[in-house]
Design a protein that fits this description.
The complex is a heterodimer of chains A (about 110) and B (about 220).
Chain A: H1 3-8, H2 11-22, E1 24-25, H3 27-37, H4 46-58, E2 62-69, E3 72-79, H5 81-105
Antiparallel strand pairs in A: 1-3, 2-3
Helix pairs in contact in A: 2-5
Chain B: H1 4-16, H2 22-42, H3 48-58, H4 61-75, H5 78-82, H6 87-101, H7 103-106, H8 111-137, H9 152-173, H10 183-217
Classes of the chains: A alpha+beta (about 110), B mainly alpha (about 220).
Chain lengths: ~110, ~220
């Protein structure tokens, strides 16, 4: 199965966790960080990342601020108070999902 | 670090392929610029033009346009707009509607037809007045912004078009002045017009919120 398909549903908790740990981040930084943390295994494309960032911003999960960087404007994202709650929920759901997968893939022998 | 001219080159390219909204484009410009800076740092022998050409292939136009479309859909939240349809406004609209249909008990016959014409005329004039005074007060920034796009405004004019269509059709058929407009038609058309005026008010409140957000976020675009 395509790796992209498997990772698709995990993108939101990954993003929320990263922002929780790093405070504020911008789009390119997020793609680099994910690539770095997963040793290149997960490569988030801007096509998947920006629509998600914009949706989370519109939903009030993220807030954005602009900053002038040299000759251009950069948009930084950070979690809102609601976003911090969402992060806990999303990460916990992902962990449960991973545990369930473990049970399915490596079932404990029954005696 | 890329020069101002090189950043402009990226921005102009993105605009030329259809990325028309600044609030979406500046993020992509930053993304592409950062990637180019990294590539140029890693490969010192490559110049900006060659790196930029390679980057263009990495970002297919179709994908970028699709992203912009999604961003546009995400930027408009009808629930946020309807939060302005609060209790006070609902009560006001009920009061105005009641007052507007009261004449059906007092006058009858073809006089209702003339009253309907007055109502349609008044509601169209009032709506246009609201839209133009809003536009005069909250002037558009120099560049197009997704968070301030106004596609929904057209849908708000639909109720007035329905009323005008109803009247126009009856007038063209020559029946409008021959027989009185049915009371139920009168009440429905008045309801549509009253509802449309209040819906326009809520829409403009939401537009104001978006405008102020855009001004706070991109103050440099609003400087004259």
């Amino acid at each position: 199965m395509n790796k992209k398909v498997l990772y698709k549903g995990c993108l939101e908790p990954i993003l929320l966790k990263l922002l929780h740990e790093n405070g504020r981040m911008y789009g390119y930084e997020i793609t680099r960080k994910v690539k770095e943390l997963t040793a290149g295994e997960l490569n988030i494309t801007e096509g998947a990342l920006y629509p998600l960032l914009h949706r989370l911003e519109a939903d009030g999960v993220l807030e954005a601020e602009m900053e002038n960087i040299g000759n251009r404007v950069r948009k930084y994202y950070s979690l809102t108070q609601n976003g911090r709650k969402e992060k806990v929920k999303a990460v916990s759901e992902l962990e449960n999902f991973a545990q369930t997968l473990q049970l399915l893939l490596n079932p404990k022998p029954s005696f | 670090m890329l020069t101002k001219g090189q950043i402009q080159q990226i921005d102009t390219y993105l605009e030329s392929i259809g990325i028309e909204y600044f609030d979406f484009r500046h993020e992509l410009t930053d993304h592409v610029a950062e990637e180019l800076e990294r590539n140029l740092q890693l490969r010192k022998s490559v110049d900006f033009d060659a790196a930029f050409e390679a980057a263009k292939a990495h970002y297919p136009t179709k994908d970028l346009i699709e992203q912009q479309f999604i961003a546009k859909l995400d930027a408009y939240n009808p629930l946020k707009e309807w939060k302005y349809f609060n209790g006070k406004r609902i009560l006001n609209s009920i009061a105005v509607y009641t007052a507007a249909i009261l004449p059906t008990f007092l006058i009858s016959g073809k006089n209702l037809n003339f009253l309907l014409i007055i109502y349609v005329f008044f509601s169209v004039v009032e709506s246009l007045r609201m839209i133009f005074s809003f536009r005069a007060k909250y002037k558009l920034p120099g560049k197009k912004l997704i968070i301030y796009s106004r596609e929904t405004l057209l849908s708000l004019l639909a109720p007035f078009l329905i009323s005008v269509f109803y009247l126009g059709k009856s007038m063209i058929n020559g029946k409008f002045f021959d027989k009185p407009v049915p009371i139920i038609d009168f009440m429905i058309l008045v309801f549509i017009m009253v509802f449309a005026i209040f819906a326009l008010q809520t829409h403009l409140d939401y537009e104001k919120e978006r405008y102020l957000n855009a001004k706070r976020r991109y103050p440099f675009l609003f400087e004259s």
